[in-house]
């Protein structure tokens, strides 16, 4: 009575962890959660004086040092399947491209797929600000049962496109106040990418325009991403109050217009002003959304172009599109998880990835070989099994001024 499945499992969505693994990993010996302190010189020494013969030396003016203090964040995900499915795990099904939990067939495929999704959501977080926001602020909402929240797709930097059905969410104000009157948790039941409308089983009655849809219980608890790492606000950043330290802030520019290469030139100049004009470029990359790569190509197409021709056109291929593009010799990396109106210039050696536990199955029981647990019931266990994924780490920006962010780029008629 066994049911046989095809060996080919088709993915109908992308799971590309572009950014998570781009940054160098800090070794375990360099990590100490309680007392990690990375010295950073914040002011030059100020002793400098012209003089004459036999003059006393000038007074010493000591430089100033502060310390970056990284914080580690824990992220989890839970999966489950029925006991009956577990009994059938050895029935002939698919080969399974990963033998997770020593499960073959479709269960092994299910766990492998779950890990891909977990890494994808971590990669999303690598572009955000650590608050757990799933999209931009909502522009409209309908509260109560079967309520909705709308994120304007034409202008949003982070749209609703990758919010999964079934996700459990909270509504938070921009100040970090949870709105949960009459509905402590809202579960996503539908997502309309064209209109930006997300439907929930229930929306809190105090949810307001300007709120953010946030992963359940995750406000300010996710790893800090590029939006938080490449910023120029007067805040306490990585343990340092950077209010009066422009050299500890990144270079940012609100474009409010379509892409223009002059924006990149301007930000490169600002970076040189802070860290010198001789900085090497071999580890500098441009990172943006595919829509802004469209904008860059369009800028190239707008230039006057001469198409060479000869008498033997039958032997030629006409190709007027740019397949690979660079900016000032720097490669452009694309990610769907990047904000649609963002463009980042990143010096790769300025970033470090703290990682005490890489994204993987969470050991349970004896801590080494046991990964499955029966699902707890009200008074006893259920005939179901759960498995858990975890990540423990964070990203750190050692040299904020080496990087730049151009935001609020126009995305009209792109993509």
What does this structure look like?
It is built from 5 helices and 24 strands. The protein is an alpha+beta fold and 415 residues long. The longest helix is centred in the N-terminal third of the chain and has 21 residues, at 105-125. Strands 5, 7, 8, 9, 10, 11 and 13 form a 7-stranded antiparallel β-sheet that branches. Strand 18 (326-327) and strand 19 (330-334) form a beta hairpin.
Mean pLDDT: 85
| Total of helices | 5
Q: What oligomeric assembly is this protein in? A: single chain
> How many DSSP-defined strands?
24
Calculate the terminal CA-CA distance, rounded to whole Å: 48 Å
Strand content: 25-35%
Outline the low-pLDDT stretches: 91-99
Radius of gyration: 26 Å
The shape is: globular
Largest sheet: 7 strands, antiparallel
Element string (H = helix, E = strand): EEEEHHEEEEEEEEEHEEEHEHEEEEEEE
Kindly state the percentage of residues in helix.
Answer: 10-25%
Structural class: alpha+beta
Topology:
Elements: E1 24-25, E2 38-43, E3 64-68, E4 73-82, H1 83-87, H2 105-125, E5 140-142, E6 144-145, E7 148-150, E8 168-172, E9 178-179, E10 186-192, E11 197-200, E12 202-203, E13 212-215, H3 226-229, E14 236-237, E15 240-241, E16 251-254, H4 261-275, E17 284-288, H5 290-301, E18 326-327, E19 330-334, E20 343-347, E21 351-361, E22 373-376, E23 381-397, E24 404-407
Parallel strand pairs: 1-21, 16-24, 17-19
Antiparallel strand pairs: 2-3, 4-23, 5-7, 6-12, 7-11, 8-9, 8-10, 8-13, 10-11, 14-15, 17-20, 18-19, 20-24, 21-23, 22-23
């Amino acid at each position: 009575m066994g049911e046989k499945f095809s060996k080919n499992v088709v993915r109908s969505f992308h799971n590309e962890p572009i950014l998570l693994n781009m940054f160098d990993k800090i070794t375990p010996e360099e990590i100490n959660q309680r007392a990690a302190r990375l010295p950073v010189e914040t002011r030059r020494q100020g002793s400098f004086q012209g003089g004459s013969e036999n003059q006393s030396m000038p007074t010493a003016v000591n430089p100033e040092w502060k310390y970056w203090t990284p914080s580690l964040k824990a992220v989890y995900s839970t999966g489950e399947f029925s006991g009956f499915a577990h009994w059938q795990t050895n029935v002939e099904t698919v080969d399974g491209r990963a033998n997770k939990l020593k499960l073959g067939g479709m269960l092994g495929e299910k766990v492998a797929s779950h890990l891909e999704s977990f890494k994808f959501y971590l990669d999303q977080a690598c572009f955000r600000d650590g608050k757990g926001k799933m999209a931009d602020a909502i522009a409209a909402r309908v509260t109560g049962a079967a309520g909705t929240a709308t994120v304007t797709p034409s202008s949003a930097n982070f749209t609703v496109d990758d919010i999964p059905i079934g996700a459990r969410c909270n509504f938070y104000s921009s100040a970090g106040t949870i709105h949960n009157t009459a509905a402590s948790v809202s579960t996503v039941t539908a997502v309309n990418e064209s209109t930006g409308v997300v439907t929930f089983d229930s929306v809190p009655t105090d949810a307001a325009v300007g709120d953010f849809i946030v992963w359940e219980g995750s406000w300010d608890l996710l790893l800090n991403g590029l939006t938080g790492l490449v910023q120029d606000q007067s805040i306490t950043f990585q343990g340092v109050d950077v209010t009066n330290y422009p050299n500890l802030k990144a270079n940012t520019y609100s474009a409010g217009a379509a892409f223009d290469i002059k924006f990149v030139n301007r930000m490169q100049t600002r970076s040189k002003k802070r860290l010198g004009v001789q900085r090497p470029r071999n580890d500098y990359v441009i990172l943006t959304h595919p829509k802004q790569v469209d904008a860059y190509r369009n800028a190239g197409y707008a230039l006057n172009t001469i198409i060479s021709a000869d008498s033997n056109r039958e032997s030629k291929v006409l190709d007027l599109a740019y397949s690979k593009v660079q900016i000032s010799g720097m490669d452009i990396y694309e990610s769907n998880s990047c904000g649609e109106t963002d463009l980042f210039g990143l010096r790769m050696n300025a970033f470090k990835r703290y990682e005490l536990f890489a994204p993987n199955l969470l050991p349970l029981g004896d801590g080494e070989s046991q990964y499955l647990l029966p699902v707890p019931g009200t008074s006893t266990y259920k005939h179901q099994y759960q498995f858990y994924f975890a990540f423990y780490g964070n990203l750190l920006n050692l040299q904020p001024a080496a990087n730049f962010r151009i935001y609020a780029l126009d995305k009209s008629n792109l993509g």
